[in-house]
Amino acid sequence: MHCFSFDIETVPDVEFGRRYWDLEGLSDADVATAMMFQRQQQTGSEFLPLHLQRVVAISVTFRTADTFKVWTLGDEDADEAEIVRRFFDGIEKYTPDLVSWNGSGFDLPVLHYRAMKHNIQAPRYWEMGDHDRDFKWNNYMSRYHWRHIDLMDVLAAFQPRGRVSLDQMAVLLGYPGKLGMSGDKVWNTFQAGGIHEIRNYCETDVLNTWLCFLRFEFMRGNLDQVGLDREYELVRTTLKSMDQPHLNEFLAAWAE
């Protein structure tokens, strides 16, 4: 079995804002400010609608056979089209189970819009049983199927009032949580040229998601204690072998 946990980071789509609201001549920062101000006036929140979120990073963990990997798709200078295409190409190649935190509410709808924008095909992802009968009762789209598990949604029993942030859930379970970075800092970090820091942050978020998933698998009986400990050790060994500062910090914050 192949399993991806994934997480995306986004910034305002200032190209759209500049074109749609005729803001030529304004800087990216000013265009984004105008977009968020208008959103604030409309809804009381600066959080932009999902179709106006531009993807700047997608990080994944990949668990298959006896291996575990974590990485961010594409190089630091990869454009949005390449990043999004790599994500759906991975699904096309491996047909993995997907694991996310709020993926149904945020990550996947954003990826749908951006894939359409960039003319990206994803037939395996959109399979509903028309070409593969296995997908009729277990596909990526259904909220109640297991091919994509949105942990935030499932653990809240599909009730909005029961939802918890990834950061708080990770800390509750003894995992590192967010280490000095958060989603609300991504735009300013991006403007300052900090794509490297954003990608590192995205990788730690997806690691927290994966660790929460392992505990979920234990809770529902798909892992026993020996199996859970083995999965933990595989993650630790992998991160140690990668020897990257942000992963070493994550390991140091993750108590044995």
Describe the structure.
The chain is α/β, with parallel strands linked by helices and 256 residues long. The chain is 48% helix and 14% strand. The chain contains ten helices and five strands, in the order βααββαβαβαααααα. It has helices at residues 14-20, 28-43, 80-94, 103-117, 151-155, 166-172, 186-191, 195-219, 225-242, 245-253, and strands at residues 2-12, 53-64, 67-72, 97-100, 148-150. It has a five-stranded mixed β-sheet with strand order 3-2-1-4-5, with helices on both faces. The radius of gyration is 19 Å and the shape is globular. The two termini are 27 Å apart. The mean pLDDT is 96.
Please supply descriptive tags for the structure shown above:
Nucleotidyltransferase, domain 5, single chain, 256 residues, alpha/beta
Give the full name of the CATH homologous superfamily: Ribonuclease H-like superfamily/Ribonuclease H
Kindly report the CATH topology.
Answer: Nucleotidyltransferase, domain 5
**What's the CATH class, please?**
Alpha Beta
Per DSSP, the total helix count is 10
- Give the overall shape: globular
Rg measurement, Å: 19 Å
* % residues in beta strands: 5-15%
Q: Which structural class is indicated by helix and strand composition? A: alpha/beta
Taking pLDDT < 50 over at least 5 consecutive residues as the criterion, the unreliable ranges are: none
Number of strands: 5
Count of structural domains: 1
- Architecture, CATH level 2? 2-Layer Sandwich
H and E order: EHHEEHEHEHHHHHH
Distance between the termini: 27 Å
How are the strands of the biggest sheet laid out side by side? 3-2-1-4-5
Tell me the major beta sheet: 5 strands, mixed
